[in-house]
Amino acid sequence: MLETPVGWVLLLLVGSVTGVLSGILGIGGGILMVPVLTFFGVPLVQATATSLVGVLLSATSGSIRNFSAGELNWRNSLVIAVFGMLTAQVGAWLGDRLADPILSLAFAVLLVATIRLIDLKRSLQHKTSPDAEASRLTASDVPSASRSIQWLPVIGIGLMAGFLSGMFGIGGGVVMVPLQMLLLAEPIKAAVRTSLGAIVPIAISGLTQHTLNDNVLWLPGLSLGVGGLLGAQVGTRMLPKLGDRTVNRLFRLFLIALAVYMVIRGVRGLM
Questions:
Q1: Dist CA 199 CA 194 (whole Å)
Q2: Are 90 and 217 in contact (CB under 8 A)?
Q3: Are 162 and 91 in contact (CB under 8 A)?
Q4: What is the pLDDT of residues 127-167, one digit of tens each?
Q5: Do 74 and 84 meet the contact criterion of CB atoms below 8 Å apart?
Q6: DSSP 98
Q7: Are 23 and 234 within 8 A, CB to CB?
Q8: Which of 62, 70, 75, 121 could form a disulfide with 182 if both were Cys (CB 3.0 to 4.6 A apart)?
Q9: In 3D, which of 141, 245, 256 has the Cα closest to residue 193?
Q10: First CA to last CA across the chain, in angstroms?
Q11: pLDDT per residue as tens digits for the range 147-156
């Protein structure tokens, strides 16, 4: 079905939705694209590879908008991306060798772990005095490249995000956003923008490896990507109008729903 004009239109709509979420939540969109593709019968390894086409285009669209608006901390994005590109190759190699049900269950574990990271960040915020927290948030909201880089945590975030991007066909934003909040003391909106910028080269790296493995379905991927290009422009414009609590809730509900789906898919595959 996905190789027909009707399928391409359907994927265009899916890409538009994921593009909006990409701009709002700082994710590449692959975390939604992968389950959708598997729902239509695409093997998981091909779904992860194909989703990276859409991830790349939607993240590029949103990042161009953030950069032009002066809202992108491009230095942090660049450092995360450089190290993420290295491990994306490893993740893509490993993902190509894992059984489909195991990969599904691992994907669900990733989503649950991400929710836990967000909860941990919130608990740390509650233990911090309001004045100290306000001063940290004010500084981290500044996207300027003149801010000093916290090298060790930024490199660690890049290495982990790249590996997960290559393995699961995601941009890595589901991990980058909460880790930036936790380790760099960034508010969610600043983390979202940095994450989206880093996703672009990381997705290129993972997509290259999957292309060499002949896993990419290009027409479905491009359909997702074109929709993502349009949706990301909407999402990045919506982000400044949403409160941090609203973005946090959307992010959490999104991850819970997808974790449940991937657990069900993995268990069925093992039965």
A1: 9
A2: no
A3: yes
A4: 544 444 444 444 444 454 445 678 888 899 999 888 987 88
A5: no
A6: S
A7: yes
A8: 121
A9: 141
A10: 26
A11: 567 888 889 9
CA-wise closest residue to 230 among 92, 101, 57: 57
Q: Show the domain range for 36.
A: 5-270
For the whole prediction, is pTM greater than 0.85?
A: no
User: What is the rounded distance in angstroms from the CA atom of residue 31 to the CA atom of residue 112?
Assistant: 13
> 194: how many CB neighbours lie within 10 A of its CB?
33
Nearest to 224 by CA among 64, 59, 53, 61: 53
DSSP 158-193: HHHHHHHHHHHSS-SHHHHHHHHHHHS---HHHHHH
DSSP 218: H
Please count the residues of the chain: 271
**CA–CA separation, 66 vs 153, rounded Å?**
23
Region at 185 (left for phi over 0; alpha for psi -120 to 50; beta for the rest): left
Both structure tokens of 194: 């940095």
